Amino acid sequence: MVMPLLDAVDVGPLGGVRLGPDVICDGFRRDCTVRVQTHVHADHLHDFETSKGYQEIITSPGSYDLLVTAKNADLPYRRNFAAVPFGKSIRFGSSTITLLPTNHILGAAQVQVVVDDGRRLGYSGDFQWPMDSVISCDCLVLDSTHGSPRYQRQYRQDQVDSQLQELLLRQLRFGPVALRGHTGLLQRAITLLCGQASVPVFASDRTIKEYRVYEAHGYPPQELSAFPATTRFPGVGLVLLRMHERPPAFIDSNFTRITLSQYISDPREPLLRFSDKDFRVAMSDHAEFAGILEYVSAVAPKLVLTDNSRGGHAVELAREISVRLGIPAVPSTFSLNREWGG
Ligand SMILES: [Zn+2]
Ligand SMILES: [Zn+2]
Questions:
Q1: Ligand 2: distance of its center to the CA of 21 in Å?
Q2: What is the pLDDT of residue 2?
Q3: Ligand nearest to the CA of 123
Q4: Ligand 1 centroid vs 63 CA: distance in angstroms?
Q5: What is the pLDDT of residue 339?
Q6: Which residues form the Metallo-beta-lactamase domain (predicted)?
Q7: Distance between CA 263 and CA 261 in Å, rounded?
Q8: Ligand 2: centre distance to CA 48 (Å)
Q9: Where are the domain boundaries for CATH 3.40.50 in the chain?
Q10: What is the C-alpha separation between 202 and 116, in angstroms, rounded?
Q11: Cα(137) to centroid of ligand 1, in Å?
């Protein structure tokens, strides 16, 4: 039973996850008719343009709106790009596909595929633990981003949130703050400030548009202004920066810089202070080792394929799942097949 299951799933060199004969998640394969886009982080968007030309693309309503905001304006007019609500099943070829939320970022989905021949396949996508409901499958492709027992945080994310909130409010009393982070973390940080700080908040057009999508999906309203066209920043305020965005010219030595980073330097301490005006906060939207094991236990698959294309812990995680949970687990291998790639 286990080996035929393993033949049905595959992780490509760029992180595309194949689930059965019809479905590819977060990547492109010529022989798959449908691409499921689990969420909008860049490492899951490879070959999206190719998929637009050749495949059906489905995603959750939140990811749909974020993709329309981030990508070309033609997206909402394409017949092959559709939003599928969480929990609603949709059929392509011989596959029935269902998406469930993962608590990772807005719109992020787990993917469940039931093939007509009875195989039940799943992909966790990027996920945070705990979550409300998990997919049901016999073979699970598992995100392994923080899948090492060596990187177990000894604090909870709600403690990180309150430390960040405290730090932001304290530093904003003395001067301007530049806060840098990935999509998802930045929006979570904004919610910590809503109703707490009375300073103006500035962001790029893209970040502002993106936050409007978050608001439309239930995040609290926050006034955001475009970057002032000046080289001298007007007094106090918070400036939001995307992770790889070039900082505007007005960011000078008066600014406190805070970076939201998944990287853990001290498992006991989420806040790292480089100087009075330079901090890193270990905010995360990924489950880590203990949470990943709890997720696998909840899904209860017969076989786990750990995703070896992201994070670098797939081999270790597969071994730990086999030993600790007694569920057969193997890391994905990069079998270069001509079907992969654009
Ligand atoms: Zn992600
Ligand atoms: Zn990822």
A1: 23
A2: 56
A3: 2
A4: 12
A5: 56
A6: 36-150
A7: 5
A8: 15
A9: 157-281
A10: 51
A11: 22
- Report which residue type is found at 292: I
**For residue 26, which ligand has an atom nearest its CA?**
2
3-state secondary structure of 114: strand
Q: What is the pLDDT of residue 23?
A: 98
Alpha carbon of 254 to ligand 1 centroid (Å)? 32
pLDDT at position 5 is 80
Residue 97 phi, psi dihedral angles, 5° rounding: -110, 135
The residue ranges of the chain whose pLDDT is under 50 are 340-342
Among all bound ligands, the one having the nearest atom to the CA of 40 is 1
- Whether the Cβ atoms of residue 105 and residue 41 lie closer than 8 Å to each other: yes
If residue 276 lies in a helix (H) or strand (E), which one and from where to where? Answer: none
Give the closest ligand to the alpha carbon of residue 184.
1
CA 286–ligand 2 middle distance (angstroms)? 9
End-to-end CA distance of the chain: give it in Å, rounded: 33
The CATH 3.60.15.10 portion of the chain extends over 2-150+286-331
- Between the alpha carbon of residue 197 and those of residues 69, 200, 214, 250, the distances in Å are 27, 9, 19, 21
**How far is the centre of ligand 2, averaged over its atoms, from the C-alpha of 7 (Å)?**
23
Beta-carbon neighbours within 5 Å of ion ligand 2: 43, 126
* DSSP code per residue over 50-113: HHHHHSEEEE-HHHHHHHHHHS-TTGGG-TTEEE--TT-EEEETTEEEEEEE-SSSTT-EEEEE
- Domain 157-281: CATH architecture, name and number where available: 3-Layer(aba) Sandwich (3.40)
Rounded Cα distance between 340 and 46, Å, is 11
Q: Are strands 120-123 and 109-115 parallel, antiparallel or unpaired?
A: antiparallel
DSSP conformation class of 145: T
Distance 310 CA to ligand 2 centre (A): 7
What pLDDT, on the 0 to 100 scale, is given for residue 125? 98
pLDDT of residue 74: 81
Ligand 1 centre to CA of 126 (Å) is: 5
- Non-local (6+) Cβ contacts of 123 within 8 A are 17, 19, 25, 36, 38, 110, 111, 140, 141
Ligand 1 centroid to Cα of residue 39, in Å, is: 7
Homologous superfamily of 2-150+286-331: Ribonuclease Z/Hydroxyacylglutathione hydrolase-like (3.60.15.10)
